[in-house]
Amino acid sequence: MRIQTNIFLWGFLAFVLPLTALALIATYYSQANYLEDTRKNIDQHLGMLSSEIERRLAADRALTYGLAQAPAIHEFLAVLDNISQQNIGGNFNKQINAVNQFFEGFQAIIPGTFFIRILDNQGNTVVKVSNNLRSQPVYDNLQGFSYVEQELNNPIFITQLRELPQDEVSSMVLPHNKVQSALLSHLSLLDNVIPLYHQNKWVGALSLTLLGEDLDKILNHAIRPFDGSLLIIETNPDIKNRHGLILFDDMQKLRFAHARSDAKYLQDTDYSPLIELAQHNDTSILSPSVVSTQKNNTLYFTEMTPYPSQFVNWIMALSISDAKLNQPYAKIRLTIWSVAGITLLIGLILTQIGARRVTRAFSDLILNFKNYAQGDHSQIAITEHCVDEIKDLGKAFNEMTNTLNIAHKDRDKAQQMMLQSSKLASIGQMAAGIGHEINNPLNNILSYAKLTIRNLENNPKLTQQDKQPLLSDLQSLREETLRASDIVKGIMNFARQVPPHFTEFNIKDWLESSIALVQQSASEKFIHLNLEINPDLSEQQLKGDRSQLQQVLVNLLLNAIYASKTDTTVHVNASINNTQIEISIIDNGAGIKAKNLDLIFDPFFSTKGQGHGTGLGLSISLGIIQDHQGELKINNRTGNNGVIAKIILPL
């Protein structure tokens, strides 16, 4: 932050901000009271509207009960009893016709579309009247008469009908609607059903299905405060396909009476928090309350019980735009912010004039930092200034550059040592390979020489005088072969690595010092090194050759830095897994090609460009880890998004 900005901020915080904050707090306090009064009024409005809907639903249940008590239905109970006994009388069709005529007269009484059904004790439809139109029996059965709708053969539904309380209207989902039409698969309202008994024997049921036009009429004429959108949903945990079902929604222009083949659920909208509130509420009824949504709207909602016989609730919510609610106070706050902005502009101008002299010294120091970062390590800050703090800052910069220059020299020295060690390792590996290839034919020559001498000594066809020159030549061949074998052994002994020197050392200190060795290399590529250590490892000791293990870790870190893109992060994570320590080095490079994964530990194999590696680092590292009874694993991350190298060592 610039000095003039700092000076301005202090002035702004001391004068302008308190006054602005005080004015804003006053408006927010007034607005909070206003919103609370608004909430109470809206809650009262929703409560009256929900009470009107509950009264309408109660009237529908009373109508269903009245139908069941009608004389025409009482006379028809004997017919249902005969059907249950598979004994159809001669007056069956006449009695069916009488009931149909009775139901057809309810067109003027029942508002909107309705379906009245009489079901037998198997749940099948004996009589059905839709508005003033009776349905003809067209589905034959084995009892000698026809059903109005297709037989269900649904034992679960029959059990539900049988267990309905006597002389009481219950609410449930009739499967007949779905069978009749896909558009009736998701009716908004549950069907009103009352069981029918003849001489204390259950013989069937009467059902009244309403689409809800009367409820739509009530809601369409209801006032929407602040031009809000009304929403009604059903919470019904017992019936999964009705839990969260949207019954009425102004936003989607969805009404109770609309036929729908596909259900719409609240869980698929921005209003899903309502379902969570209903599920986690400790009481059976949600108190009128408010919840915010993701579309800058506020939901005012209440809950009602439309069906006393069911554990079903309806949530009625009113969605109001926050802009509509807060409109009176938005202009006031705009004025306050405008005054604050003008004051801010004046403060910036005055601060710029007053701080120009001081900032010049800081600009020079910033330039020194940039030049040093770009490689000019000869930068020296001016330490003579009228401001003591700037003078001290210049001295601190000079001390820092001296320290970093010393560190650079130490790093260059360490890199030179690492390069020399790498070259020696390459020579050793080459010597070992050559020695191994030469040693095999030498062993064969030696074996054949021994065999030839033995065969020559036991050959009776040659005299001792003939054998002597040949034996002398073969002995010379054997001696020269042994001498060559001794030379090869010497080469292979030179190639062998130095055995580890085991000591105990602190894991955390070892990790931090190892990362410090490659910090400069990471900085040159703008790579960030992030070390995360399990708290249990803070004081943990590890037994091993600290220097050799550091060589492994540094090699893996350099590989990760080389592979990573600029301005990314290499993560080093250390944790305990049972009796082992796991150290992971994770980069964000391009990963290793699949065909190269099996070759990375081979000597002299490298994917780096010429001059960037010998291909011995991983093979030497693997040998060191194996000498410590550990494991070294290198794999691509998921999606080829970099590499993860794991060092696993026993504690």
UniProtKB/TrEMBL annotation:
Transmembrane segments: 7-29
InterPro entries, per the entry: HAMP_dom, HATPase_C_sf, HATPase_dom, His_kinase_dom, HisK_dim/P_dom, HisK_dim/P_sf, Sensor-like_sf, Sig_transdc_His_kin-like_C
UniProt keywords, alphabetically: ATP-binding, Cell membrane, Kinase, Membrane, Nucleotide-binding, Phosphoprotein, Transferase, Transmembrane, Transmembrane helix, Two-component regulatory system
Location of this chain's protein in the cell: Cell membrane
Sequence ranges assigned to domain Histidine kinase in this UniProt record: 433-651
GO CC entries: plasma membrane
GO function term, MF aspect, one: ATP binding
Name of the top EC class for this enzyme: transferase
Membrane topology: Multi-pass membrane protein
Catalysis performed (reactions): ATP + protein L-histidine = ADP + protein N-phospho-L-histidine
SUPFAM superfamilies attached to this UniProt entry: ATPase domain of HSP90 chaperone/DNA topoisomerase II/histidine kinase (SSF55874), Homodimeric domain of signal transducing histidine kinase (SSF47384), Sensory domain-like (SSF103190)
Principal location class: membrane
Enzyme Commission (EC) number: 2.7.13.3
Record domain HAMP: where: 356-409
Name of this protein: histidine kinase
